[in-house]
């Protein structure tokens, strides 16, 4: 319905449309409130979103061609200014002045985390283009005991922020709502969400709480704050939802849980819906390379963010995985010229998705399954990434986080966060359900603890398997 104010000479009383959403951009230039002219960071976000809306509808072939062109530019810069690549110029220098060829990409070695740690400054560029802005050092949380330091340009940070904003817009979040975060980094209460959304818009407030505190404390805080959106780790969201269901703790304003940083188990959406009537949206990211994939708002596919990273999912023989196959994730950030990471192995494994019915050309992952240390090894040599839905824990009330550790080829230990031990009947039923779920008669030990401490990074692994030699 047209706004009558458009013909009456009055200013419109309704928001204007921004990228398909009714939002009001913040004007930062006197005399240019309408159409709004934001400051430079806001204008940069608008410019990038304008292009991202179009490139996401390109064909997969067009996206791949653009990525290979950008990769060719990155490699030319790397062999000229980065010691590690300059010493291997014959291998890394693109063949010709245009896009990198698929055949050459396949011949490039995979860069391991241990190599990045050992090489250090040998991966730093001696001459980053001034247009990329200043660089800053980013240190990963080291959740696996192996932190990595990466030098990141302002340009790379801006592209990552644009992808985060794309996630907000895809999922049509209301920026006037309250955002709560439960992570390992605590920020004082703020009147706005922070970058990137508030580079363009006036937003609601931001509150945060320490994810390492007891679930009971977190649940009480969440109910008291009653936010519109919650951002936290996937395992914490599951524990919070179970606690709120059991103790009938309501969070009536909560619309959506944004999970990140861990594998999101398949039962999380149902738990969040039961606990709060909220949906769940996951994102796949890694601190050293930024956001890699966003969930499709229509179908849940993890769409790879091709405009900032080239992501490969490789089979054991090095070939690209086909839809339905699981392989290791290898990523090349295209925008970070301060410390090029060419074919960097994240240690994660993921399943490739078929083309998404939404019409976006961005290739997809169906699921992120975890790391090799999260694999279950069977005595007969088989392996799998296990999951433990709520049905496994049926009949056990009052528990928080759960971690299963494979002690030996035939032995599992269940570490259960609970303030009282299990009854013998509960123990027997849990063992039956767990071994049925695994499809093997493992010997099961149960350890009930008052609290399962979180690592310093705040992330939690609900299953820890044997290493490649069959030892813990």
CATH superfamily of the largest domain: ANL, N-terminal domain
Instruction: Indicate the percent of residues in helices.
Output: 25-40%
The major beta sheet can be summarized as: 11 strands, mixed
Q: What coarse outline follows from CA principal-axis ratios? A: globular
Q: Tell me which CATH architecture of the largest domain applies here.
A: 3-Layer(aba) Sandwich
Give the overall pLDDT as a whole number.
Answer: 89
Instruction: Give the C-alpha Rg.
Output: 24 Å
Percentage of residues in strands:
15-25%
> Which CATH class of the largest domain is shown?
Alpha Beta
Total count of domains: 2
Low-confidence segments, given as residue ranges, are: 1-16
- Distance between termini? 65 Å
Strands, total number: 21
Report on the architecture of this protein:
This protein is an alpha/beta fold. It has helices spanning 5-8, 40-55, 60-81, 83-86, 89-92, 102-107, 113-119, 154-170, 215-225, 234-246, 268-276, 424-438, and strands spanning 17-18, 21-22, 135-139, 149-153, 179-183, 206-210, 229-233, 256-260, 279-286, 290-295, 302-304, 309-314, 326-333, 344-352, 364-371, 376-377, 383-384, 399-408, 411-418, 443-449, 463-464. It folds into two domains: 19-28 and 36-367, ANL, N-terminal domain (Rossmann fold), CATH 3.40.50; 376-464, GMP Synthetase, Chain A, domain 3. The protein is built from twelve helices and 21 strands. The chain has an eleven-stranded mixed beta sheet with strand order 6-5-7-8-9-10-11-15-14-13-12, sandwiched between helices. Strands 20-19-18-21 form a four-stranded mixed beta sheet. Strands 1-2 form a two-stranded antiparallel ribbon. Helix 9 crosses helix 10 (234-246) and helix 10 (234-246) crosses helix 11.
């Amino acid at each position: 319905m047209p706004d009558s104010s458009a013909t009456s000479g009055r200013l419109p009383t309704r928001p204007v449309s921004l990228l398909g959403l009714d939002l009001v951009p913040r004007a930062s230039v006197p005399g240019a409130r309408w159409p709004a002219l934001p400051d430079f960071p806001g204008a940069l976000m608008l410019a990038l979103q304008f292009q991202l809306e179009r490139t996401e509808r390109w064909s997969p072939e067009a996206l791949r061609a653009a990525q290979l062109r950008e990769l060719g530019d990155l490699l030319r810069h790397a062999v000229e200014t980065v010691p590690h690549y300059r010493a291997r110029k014959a291998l890394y220098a693109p063949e010709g002045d245009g896009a990198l060829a698929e055949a050459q990409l396949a011949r490039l070695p995979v860069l391991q985390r241990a190599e990045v740690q050992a090489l250090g400054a040998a991966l730093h560029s001696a001459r980053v283009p001034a247009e990329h802005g200043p660089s800053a050092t980013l240190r990963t949380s080291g959740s696996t005991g192996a932190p990595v330091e990466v030098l990141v340009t302002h340009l790379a940070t801006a592209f990552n922020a644009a992808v985060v904003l794309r996630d907000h817009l895809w999922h049509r979040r209301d920026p006037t709502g309250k955002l709560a975060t439960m992570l390992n980094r605590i920020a004082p209460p703020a009147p706005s969400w922070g970058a990137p959304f508030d580079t363009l818009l006036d937003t609601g407030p931001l509150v945060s709480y320490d994810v390492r505190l007891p679930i009971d404390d977190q649940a009480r805080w969440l109910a008291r704050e009653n936010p519109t959106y919650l951002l936290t780790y996937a395992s914490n969201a599951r524990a919070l939802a179970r606690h709120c269901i059991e103790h009938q703790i309501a969070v009536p304003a909560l619309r959506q849980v944004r999970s990140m940083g861990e594998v999101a188990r398949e039962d999380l959406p149902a738990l969040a819906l039961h606990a709060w009537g909220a949906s769940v949206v996951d994102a796949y990211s890694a601190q050293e390379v930024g956001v890699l994939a966003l969930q499709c708002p229509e179908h849940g596919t993890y769409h790879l963010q091709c405009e900032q990273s080239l992501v490969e999912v490789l089979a054991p023989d090095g070939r690209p995985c086909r839809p339905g196959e699981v392989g290791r994730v290898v990523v090349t950030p295209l925008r970070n010229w301060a410390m090029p990471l060419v074919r960097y192995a994240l240690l994660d494994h993921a399943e490739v998705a078929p083309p998404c019915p939404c019409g976006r050309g961005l290739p997809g992952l169906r699921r992120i399954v975890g790391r090799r240390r999260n694999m279950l090894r069977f005595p007969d040599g088989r392996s799998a990434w296990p999951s433990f839905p709520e049905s496994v824990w049926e009949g056990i009330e009052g528990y928080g986080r759960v971690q299963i550790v494979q002690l030996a080829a035939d032995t599992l230990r269940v570490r259960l966060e609970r303030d009282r031990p299990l009854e013998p009947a509960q123990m027997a039923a849990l063992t039956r359900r767990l071994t049925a779920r695994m499809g093997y008669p493992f010997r099961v030990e149960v350890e009930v603890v008052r609290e399962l401490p979180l690592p310093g990074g705040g992330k939690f692994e609900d299953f820890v398997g044997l290493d490649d030699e069959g030892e813990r």
